[in-house]
Amino acid sequence: xxxxxxxxxxxxxxxxxxxxxxxxxxxxxxxxxxxxxxxxxxxxxxxxxxxxxxxxxxxxxxxxxxxxxxxxxxxxxxxxxxxxxxxxxxxxxxxxxxxxxxxxxxxxxxxx
Amino acid sequence: xxxxxxxxxxxxxxxxxxxxxxxxxxxxxxxxxxxxxxxxxxxxxxxxxxxxxxxxxxxxxxxxxxxxxxxxxxxxxxxxxxxxxxxxxxxxxxxxxxxxxxxxxxxxxxxxx
Lengths: 112, 113
What we know:
The complex is a heterodimer.
Chain A: E1 4-5, E2 11-14, E3 19-25, E4 32-38, E5 45-50, E6 54-58, E7 61-66, E8 71-76, E9 85-92, E10 100-102, E11 106-111
Parallel strand pairs in A: 2-11
Antiparallel strand pairs in A: 1-3, 3-8, 4-5, 4-9, 6-7, 7-8, 9-10, 9-11
Chain B: E1 4-7, E2 10-13, E3 19-25, E4 31-38, E5 42-51, E6 54-57, E7 65-66, E8 76-78, E9 87-94, E10 103-104, E11 108-112
Parallel strand pairs in B: 2-11
Antiparallel strand pairs in B: 1-3, 3-8, 4-5, 4-9, 5-6, 7-8, 9-10, 9-11
């Protein structure tokens, strides 16, 4: 069973700070990596995806991928109370992307 | 509006009574998938489909069936629901060419008594 590990949190950060969310995965051949945001009672919403080692930035969000360490992270700069949600890490399987494994999610709380 | 729709949104049923949860997308996506979400276990993939008439098992397929007769629809069938299938179910879709960046439906909360 391929695994995707996340700390369930909650991770509390003050408004305006950088929130750092981390994820490790077990399948060394995985090729696609995603971050979804899920507000309470709502469906997951894709916020970032990354396929290559390094950093990818989109607005206040930066995804970082290190395949050698099997590690992917999400940084949220200038955190806002509206960023309070659960962040799900998802990994596409090696050899394709048909099967996707999700982590349990990290709950982020941004304190005003 | 591009969207994934699911029906019903809420369902309470009894053990053994067959039910179907429908999923439809209007984005011409080839890939569709069903997940269940349970506290402490996260999202787990039940079945997925790469295109019409092409389906495959995810991580937790036991007790579920799917079919993909049309590109836009991907119903989830519980032939004989049991209480351990009480969960929040999500349907998702994506373009094959996109690398599986999935769009999720609003969810169906199922309770089996």
